[in-house]
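User: My collaborator sent over this chain with a note saying "see what the structure looks like." That's all I know about it. Can you take a look?
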Amino acid sequence: MTAIRFYHLQSQTQKQALPLLLSKALEKGHRIVVKLQDASEIEDIDTHLWTYHPDSFLPHGSAKTGQAEAQPVWLTTTDENPNKADVLIVGQGAETAMQGDFTLCCEIFSGDDAAAVQDARKRWKAYKEQDFEVTYWQQNERGGWDQKA
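Assistant: Without extra context I'll predict from the sequence alone. Here is the result:
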């Protein structure tokens, strides 16, 4: 059964928090699909993952770069799993029908956006009704995560 984690951003933007989430998953040997809302967001995150830290980068690709099967992280706006990932990260504003096809599905949303919080509550309820294992992680002031539910 898929585990679903909600990540409630408090002190960082999705763009700032995503490299740490990806790094932790990659360190554990996971392959990841990141579903984002639109092509401009993919472009922005793509650039950010190459430049977010002066001493490193996160290997990734998208339809623009191709070779999905060779990419440990795949950025997309569609429901797909071309790199045979076991982790799905759903960015704020994106939706998926594939959450059950992964071992772990992470939903990211901003606490500064009332509509995003309301949407997350609806998805939480729907996932619980479908008997997914659901947990809630709130970002602390240091940028780390505290499990709240």
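A starting point for your reply to your collaborator: The first strand starts at residue 3 and ends at 9.
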